[in-house]
Every structure is written in C-alpha cells, then in structure tokens.
Amino acid sequence: MVTVRNLVRRFGALSVVNDVSLDIAKGELVAITGASGAGKSTLLHLMGALDSPDGGTVRINGVDVFGLSAKKQAKFRNEQLGFVFQFHHLLPEFTAIENVAMPVWIAGKSRQEGLDRAQELLELVGLGARTKHKPSALSGGEQQRVAIARALANKPAVIMADEPTGNLDSANAEAVHNLFVDLQRQLGQTFILVTHNTGLAAMADRHLEMRDGRIVSESRDRGA
C-alpha cells in the first residue's frame, strides 16, 4: 500500500529524515515512535505529501505521489489519504456531521451523499446521537472521534495520524486507541500512527522506532 524509498528531508545542514525506506501493507496498523526531533512527524508529513522531500520517492497504492502536479497531488490527498492530528482542526461554525461531510463535498459529491456518509461514520465511531452538535458542544474525546470520522470520509487508502491522543486524558486516549484497532479490523483500513504513547504503539501490528532521522528498530508483536 505504501512504498518509501531512500527518503531524505533536510533543513539546512540537518537531515531530519535520513535515507528512510519502508513498506507498509494494505490493512496494516503501523506505529512510529521516537524522541522529539527523531524525524517521525516529518516522515509522516512526507508520506502524506504535506511536505516535499529533498530526495527519494513515496508510492501509495501504486501512485508516485511526488510525480503528480500540485493540483493532482491535492486531489490525491483529499481522496486517497485521511489525516488525524493532535488537535482536531474541526471547523467551529459547522456541526459534527457537516465537518465529516466536508471532504466528500470537496471531492464533488452531492450534499446528501456527504451527509449520508457522515451519518454512517459518526455512528461507526459512537457519535450517532451527536451529529448536530458543533465542536464547542463536544468533549475533547468526542471532537477527536469526529476528526477520525472525517479522515475516513472518502474511503481513503491510508489514514495517517500524528500524535492523535497527545491532547487527550488517559481515559479518552485509551478509547481512541481501541477505536483505531476496531476500525482497522472492521474496515481493513491501513493506519500509520506517529505517537509517544507506548500503549498505542503496543496495539499496532508493527512498531517502528526512529532516531536521528532513521528507523533503528522494528517489532511485530501486537499487544492488547
């Protein structure tokens, strides 16, 4: 599903991502950990075409992401990739269902198609009764669930999450951990998660550790 070859990202003389190559299979849940400054978020942003590399390639579902024009790359991101960040980035003036429907509308689908898809996803993440609430009326954990539903809106090839539980208390963090695993099992969804949370990393199919811009270890033992 994801093929990374010899990826490099430099900021001045510093190589933040240093010749990284990896493969991620369809339906796999991969966690990437490492100390602050290890390069894990930069690697995720490169894989998601939120940043451009100084060298190397990223292929997702067979598509050379950086071989696309800027316009096609933006379309690819909206339709093939879903993003979840530490802060939910919901649009405050819109309801939960409208926030989730937004990527569907951007993709050119009808208003009703977007709302139907959003309703389905909000029910899937346990918020079927909160669809008309604006973000300010939702708890932090609920807001992040809306963000996860939004990331799934266009049935993307890959969901990429950067510290998705970093802004949540332990109870909500655990609930989000379990939700990722449940969604992976139910949908066969591919997830790449950058996290400091060892509990979340332990629930992944594969755990990659980064240091100084490189992947330095890999484990495949999934815990629960």
TrEMBL record:
<keyword id="KW-0547">Nucleotide-binding</keyword>
<comment type="similarity">
    <text>Belongs to the ABC transporter superfamily.</text>
</comment>
<dbReference type="InterPro" id="IPR015854">
    <property type="entry name" value="ABC_transpr_LolD-like"/>
</dbReference>
<dbReference type="InterPro" id="IPR027417">
    <property type="entry name" value="P-loop_NTPase"/>
</dbReference>
<dbReference type="InterPro" id="IPR003593">
    <property type="entry name" value="AAA+_ATPase"/>
</dbReference>
<dbReference type="InterPro" id="IPR017871">
    <property type="entry name" value="ABC_transporter-like_CS"/>
</dbReference>
<dbReference type="GO" id="GO:0005524">
    <property type="term" value="F:ATP binding"/>
</dbReference>
<keyword id="KW-0067">ATP-binding</keyword>
<protein>
    <submittedName>
        <fullName>ABC transporter ATP-binding protein</fullName>
    </submittedName>
</protein>
<dbReference type="Pfam" id="PF00005">
    <property type="entry name" value="ABC_tran"/>
</dbReference>
<feature type="domain" description="ABC transporter">
    <location>
        <begin position="2"/>
        <end position="224"/>
    </location>
</feature>
<keyword id="KW-0813">Transport</keyword>
<dbReference type="InterPro" id="IPR003439">
    <property type="entry name" value="ABC_transporter-like_ATP-bd"/>
</dbReference>
<dbReference type="InterPro" id="IPR017911">
    <property type="entry name" value="MacB-like_ATP-bd"/>
</dbReference>
